[in-house]
Amino acid sequence: MIRTELFHAMVVHFPIALLMFSFVFFVASRFSRDEAILKISMWSLVVGTLGAVAAVMTGLIAEDLAPHTDKAHTILETFHEPLGLSVMFTSLLLTIWSFAVRWRFKGMMAAAFIIVFSAVIALVALTGHYGSNMVYEHGMAVSPKAFQQVTKPHHHGEEEEHKEETTPEEEQHHDEGTAPHSH
């Protein structure tokens, strides 16, 4: 069965990477005055913005389908979703602005573009922070079955095989539904 709520996790990395990449290249284009670097920045912005739209759409689907705790839902509604929408709308604004000026940024307009773009990058970082918090701290989209299989943190040495440390009590553990028996 395809879990469509997981599409968000697959899509969301594209706008994160492309918007940050675009920002770095835009700033670099201001110093180098290289038209090719500016074009790379602008097309990365366009594709990153399309990725942000896809991330919001798949996020809205995931919100309704993904298993989650009350705490994850609160973080989603209070922070992650509004921030994600802000990233989408502000990156759309930057893209429209770029086309409106035909990618010709001069003087104060370039400075203003960098300031707004910096805000978008900050929004991307905050959105990612709350998204990862929902998943890694509160189990958003993690199936209840997986919670039953969680192991204690353990170390993997270079030449060690995967071996979990167990206590004698844990070695006596039986899966639910297994008839008691002696070892």
Keywords:
single chain; mainly alpha; 183 residues; disordered C terminus; 68% helix
Provide a brief overview of the structure.
The chain has 183 residues and is mainly α. Helices cover 68% and strands 0% of the residues.
Describe the fold and architecture.
By secondary structure, this protein is mostly helical. The chain is built from seven helices and no strands. The protein has helices spanning 7-11, 13-32, 35-65, 70-100, 107-136, 144-147, 168-171. The longest helix has 31 residues, at 35-65. It starts with 6 loop residues before the first helix and ends in a 12-residue tail after the last helix.
| Helix/strand order | HHHHHHH
Biggest beta-sheet profile: none
Distance between the termini: 38 Å
Number of helices: 7
What amount of the residues lies in strands?
Answer: under 5%
Average predicted confidence as pLDDT: 85
Global shape: elongated
**How many runs of DSSP E, i.e. beta strands?**
0
As a whole number of angstroms, the C-alpha radius of gyration is 23 Å
Structural class: mainly alpha
Instruction: Give unreliable regions as ranges.
Output: 165-183
Query: Helical residue percent?
Result: 55-70%
Question: Which SSEs are present, and which pair or pack?
Answer:
Layout (H helix, E strand, L loop, with lengths): L6 H5 L1 H20 L2 H31 L4 H31 L6 H30 L7 H4 L20 H4 L12
